[in-house]
Design a protein that fits this description.
The structure holds two protein chains of two kinds.
Chain A lengths: L2 H27 L6 H39 L4 H28 L7 H41 L3
Helix pairs in contact in A: 1-2, 1-4, 2-3, 2-4, 3-4
Chain B lengths: L1 H5 L1 H26 L1 H12 L2 H26 L6 H25 L1
Helix pairs in contact in B: 2-3, 2-4, 2-5, 3-4
Classes of the chains: A mainly alpha, B mainly alpha.
Chain lengths: ~160, ~110
């Protein structure tokens, strides 16, 4: 698969997973017997999408990131790798656990139990901002590569 | 009792998530501080330290979640909803701060 396509699919799936977590959060606020199966299905969708984001992004990171890493580190924004990529790749592992846990938490009796709803709200509520931070870090990395290439060109490289 | 309302897998895997997050953050600091030791070992296992890290987290998460669900004669760990969300949110926030703080200062 084309590297650029992978780079589009990775954040796109992550973005949809974030929307799924937001959906679970909002739906759980007013959970009823009628909405239980929908909440469970969307929480499973969130987990599946997050795993696909991880596998596709992970493949790109392990196989194709090397040359871009070199461009970033030699360019004017080396912190994009040193801080944003390093933090992103490791915080994402936690995000993956949160997304994996969401369907487990959502399997409780949300309509009847305030305690079960509280757990789902917190987990979905943690997934959304962390996912957005991941998306933002990815954007900074893309810009760092672009700036690095301009810098290299300006240096006559 | 709030615990019974949540289900044993919610409490067990929730606690497992909290512990795995903290262990994962500490592993980040450990491997980056020991490039010739821990990092090299993790690279040698799967070919990439990050892949090994992900596998380690997944195995720890499943193992702890399963183990916690077996305690109290198979009824799972007893914890209130407030206790559980405090553990999860606290662990995720502390782990994120540990990782981001480490790379900020590294």
């Amino acid at each position: 698969m084309n590297n650029n396509v992978i780079l589009l699919i990775h954040p796109a799936l992550g973005g949809i997973a974030t929307l799924a977590a937001l959906w679970v959060f909002v739906d759980t606020l007013n959970a009823s017997e009628a909405s239980l199966s929908r909440i469970k299905n969307i929480s499973v969708l969130c987990a599946v999408l997050m795993w696909l984001t991880y596998i596709i992004g992970g493949y790109w990171y392990v196989v194709h990131y090397g040359p871009e890493k070199a461009i970033i580190k030699e360019g004017p924004w080396p912190f994009a790798h040193g801080f944003f990529m390093e933090t992103k790749e490791h915080v994402f592992l936690m995000l993956l656990l949160l997304a994996t846990y969401l369907p487990i938490a959502a399997s409780g009796s949300l309509a009847k139990s305030r305690a079960a709803r509280k757990v789902v709200l917190w987990v979905a509520g943690l997934i959304v901002p962390i996912s957005l931070a991941m998306e933002g870090s990815g954007a900074i990395l893309s810009i760092a590569v672009k700036i690095g290439l301009f810098f290299k060109q300006a240096q006559g490289g | 009792m709030e615990n019974s309302e949540m289900g044993k897998y919610t409490t067990s895997f929730g606690l497992s998530l909290a512990i795995t997050s903290l262990v994962s953050a500490l592993l980040v600091i450990l491997k980056e501080s020991s490039e010739d030791g821990v990092l090299a070992l993790m690279k040698s296992i799967t070919g990439h330290h990050w892949v090994t890290h992900g596998l380690f987290n997944l195995i720890l998460y499943i193992a702890l979640g399963w183990a916690f669900s077996r305690v109290h004669k198979g009824q799972g760990v007893k914890i209130s909803a407030n206790g559980l969300v405090s553990c999860i949110a606290g662990a995720v926030i502390i782990s994120t701060v540990l990782i981001a703080g480490f790379y900020l200062l590294h």
